[in-house]
Amino acid sequence: MFTSIAGNVAIVTGAASGAGLGIAKTYAKAGVHVVITGRTESRLLNTQREIQAEAPNAKILVIVADNTDHGAAKKIVSQTIDHFGKLNILVNCAQTFRANIKVEDVTSDDITAVYESGVFGAWRLMQEALPYLKESQGTIINFASGADTINTPHYAVYASNKAALRSITRIAAKEWGPYNINLNNVNPLNPSQESENINDDSEAKASTEAIVNAIPMRRWGDTQKDVGSVCLFLALPEGHYLTGMTFDVDGGATIRS
């Protein structure tokens, strides 16, 4: 039997859909008070209703914030503390996605958009959250990607951004370990419970099927059962000694041959 973390407080960025939504649901079902952030209020309110449909007693705080805004991190953390009085878990899931761009075609705008929402946005939140995570001896989970591990062509901006975040996580795990804060990377493979990545276009369907067929387990990851469960365990006392690691939650897609 694992230790309950009901009553703990978690910030989950990029929680309006995908992995962020799945993680927020998983935490809420475990009794964790969840702060969900994103750029669009209407989507976040839909997320709030969706979470409360599965976890009726969940305490949820909605904060509209854009990670590319340099003031967003301070806003998110300060409103969390004002509302709940503490912070135990930070999950950096938000990420602007730009791919299918050759290295020679990457623009400064591409780099800024991806890095500001990803590595820089996560870094700023880590810094703002640190004083409160010291108090709670808490957990940070950063979302990286297998794209930099398998060196996916045309993903240079996205993959390099995730590689940087992975490195920051490992170094921070060493620097902040004395505060008993654990930090880890989670690498999901496009987890989706919906068919949002599959449209009526036959070429898109064929591409999606090819990706799934390359996964040893032959399926996408489930945002709650697969990804959310890993993020929940890393926030438990039983998972706290795990730090500076990268968890490839991808059904074996990035197994090194």
From TrEMBL:
InterPro entries: NAD(P)-bd_dom_sf (IPR036291), SDR_fam (IPR002347). CDD domains: SDR_c. The keyword Glycoprotein does not apply. Keywords: Oxidoreductase. GO terms for biological process: bile acid metabolic process. PANTHER family: OXIDOREDUCTASE, SHORT-CHAIN DEHYDROGENASE/REDUCTASE FAMILY (AFU_ORTHOLOGUE AFUA_5G02870), SHORT-CHAIN DEHYDROGENASE_REDUCTASE FAMILY PROTEIN. Belongs to the short-chain dehydrogenases/reductases (SDR) family. This is NAD(P)-dependent dehydrogenase, short-chain alcohol dehydrogenase family. It comes from Weissella hellenica.
